[in-house]
Structures are given as C-alpha cells and as structure tokens.
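Folds abound. A case:
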Amino acid sequence: MGVVQRESIQSTIVSYGGAALGFVNQLLLFTQFLTKDEIGLANVIILIAITYAQFSGLGAGNVILRFFPFFRQSESGHNGLLFGMVALVTAGFGLFTALFFLFHGQIVAYFGAKAPLLTSYINYVIPLAYCWILLNVFDSYLRSLFKTVVSTFVREVLKRLAITIVVGLYALSWVSFEEFVLLYIALHCAQPLLLIGYTWYLGELKITPQFGRVWQRMYKRVLMYGGVSFLAFSAAQIIGYIDSIMLAGMVGEGEAGVYTISLYVTSLIVIPWRALSKVTSAQVAEYWKRKNLVELGILYKKTSVINLVVASFCFLGIWINRENIIAIIGEEFREGVWVLLFTGLGRVISMWVGLNSFILNLSRKYLYDFWINIFMIVFGVASNFFLIKTYGIKGATMATLLTLSIVNVVRLLLVWKFFRLQPFSWAMIKCFVIAGIAYGVSELVPTLSHYLLDIPVRSGLFSVIFVGLLLGLKVSPDINAFVEKTFNRIVGKS
C-alpha cells in the first residue's frame, strides 16, 4: 500500500500510545478521583461540543477530502480551498450559535433536573465547538496532504497527557473542581492551534482568498456536496455520542459517567480503523478522480479483511476480560458490561464494512449517503428515546447497535448495486473460525485470584492462539507481510 501502509501504521502506533494514556485517565484516574457525576460532566460536555461542531461545520472536512485533488496546486495556495472552508465553518458556527442561544432555555430545562453539573457549565460548549470545528478542518486538510502522524499525536497523545496532568492537579487538591473544568476545556481548545502551527511549519498554511478558474468551475459542485454532506460521516459520530447525551438528560449524569467510561473501553476497537481511514479516505477520493474501480475494489477488500481481524481481536480481548475491567474500575460500574457487549459488536460491524461509507459518500451517488445519514440520526434518536426509557444504560447501547447494523447493511447493498463492489472473501470465514476457537479456549481458563494475574494469562493465551492461527492460515497477506518485515527489522535483516 505504500504511503497508505506507512502513514496508517505510524498513526496506529501513535494512537495506541494515546489509548494507553486514555486508559490511565478514564479507567484509573477518573474512576479514582472523580465522582460518577463529575465523570459524566467531563465526558458529556465534550460530546455535546462535538455534536454541535458536526452540525455547524457544514461538512467542510468532507469537502476538503472530496475536492482537494482538484484544488491541489501548492504554488497557487491550493486555489484558496482552505480559506473557503475556514470562512464556511465560521459562518456555520455563527448560525448555530444563534440557534443555541435561541433555544438556551429548553436546553437547560432538558438537562436541569437530571444533570445539574452539566447545566452549570453548558455555555462552555460554545468555544469548545468552534475549536473542534477548526480541528476537523485542519485534520482533513493534513489528511489530504497525507500528513496524518502529527495530527494523530496531538489528538490522541498530547491531549491525553495534558488531561493526566490536569487530573493529577485536581487529585492533589492544587486546583478546585471549577479550575479543573476550565483547564480541561482549555487543553481541548489548544488542539487546533497546534495543528495550525504545524500546517504553517509545513509551508501549507495557505489562507489567502482566491476565487480563480478552479473555483469558478467547481463551486456549484462544492456547494452542492457541502450542502448535503454536512451529515455525512458526522451521523455515525453523532450516533456514537447522542446516546450519552440523551442518557444524561433522561437518566442522570452519573449514569452517563458509567456509560462513557465503558464506551471508552470499546473505543480501543476502532483505533486502527481511525488511523487507516485518515489515509484511505484520501485514497478513495483519488481513485474516484481517476475512475479506477479496480484499485478501489482491491482497497475495499484488503481493508475489510484487516479491519475484521483487528476488530475481532480487540473486541474479544475486551470481552474475555470483562470481569477484570469491573475489578479495576469498581463494582458501581458493573452495568457498563452491557455497553462492552452491544457497543463492541456495533463497532466490529462498522469496522468490518467501514470503507463503504467513504466509497458512497465520495462518489457521484453521495446523495444516497445523505439520506442514509438522515435516517441514522432520526432512527437513532427515536430508538434511544424509547429504549433508554425502558432499559436505561442497556437500552442506549442496544439502540446504537441496532442503528449501526441497519445503516451498514443498507450502505453495503447500495455500494454493490451501484458499483458492483463488495468486501467479502473466504479470508473472513477463516477469521470467524479463528476468533471462535481463540475465544472458546480462553473462556475455559478458570478465573485466577487477582486481575493482575488473570489478565496476562487469559489475554496471553487468547493472543497466542488468535495470532498464531491468523499468521499460519495467512488470512491477510498484508498482515503477514507486515509481521515479517517488522521481524526482519528487529533481527537486523535487510
């Protein structure tokens, strides 16, 4: 895969470094030094800001990924694309901020009874949202330049390291809770500033207004695409967040704290996909520009096999250690086991066929993805409302699994109907068999006296069986080649 492989592997390594810090923050420091309500505030206020940003960003990140190949021309400042997108998101942010203040009373009333802490800090979502919009714009811009590692480092590692420090200050009583919240918000707001600085360092901070021939030729397509794709990709993220937000308002911020802690554990499953998608999304755009369906189909199958292997390994690795996770974070978080199961399965499905979203949205059939995303949001909110009322935390995660399953099946069918592309292969059957064998054997291991003993024994056995069969049966030539190349580097072979 060349650039795709190198950048995605480096980004994955960085992402897992950040995940280790996130594990320390969420599962150890947060659960040790913050109450469930405080955890709910810290996590849900970020999720509200991200949702706010997804709508007010008006699809600018998607526009950059879709059209950058047409605007790419360094000496002309890429024909003013970056300036146009920054101007667009600023206008969108102004519009949605006006709506936020217009409905401020209703927003406060929704959270007021069940989430008083969140209500007290609700106005902080405004600066958080704008910073998140800029973060998305510059992240997409750097992805289009195939510069993903620094962006991943800032978002996955540096931010979490700063969170560790801020939680430490609060744990030592060096700052009050209010000061903790302010510092917590400030460090999130610093992320886009760092990416802007990195873009300038690369000599790519090209924000001079330009409306030349490329804009004249492309502006209708850009506006049309941006107008209908502001929900594209965002819908999946919104569905991933709306359950936590609705749970806070309907049940309480304490329950939202339990939910988001468990949700973080399952987020480990999608780290490789997030790293890979930063490069493959730009690659898909290039293939569509060249109308190269053959290479696109190859990329689709390869990434689907790799994603299924990684997602299965990570999900089952988490699930076999569910009791150990509860032992680490505390019995009061036990209801989060349902989140591990249902959300984990939803993430496996989304990763397995994940490229279909990019293929559809970056094609001329992107209007179909627009309507899919409309359905996703409407169905997701409705299913969360009814299932949360009935089942609480379990209902929220059931609604997410149901929504993601339906949407991914529809996308899969549409990609096949329009482009005759599908991700399935016999390698996937091998993966399911391997996963079943490794899981079954690890479940036969008796529970050891302490999680510090049980985790390495249970996980080690599972990993040896899974990886050994994976490499022996050559499920993915790309994975085998990567392992062989890494081994040769370690032992000093050329």
The chain has a mean pLDDT of 84. Residues 3-33 form the longest helix (31 residues).
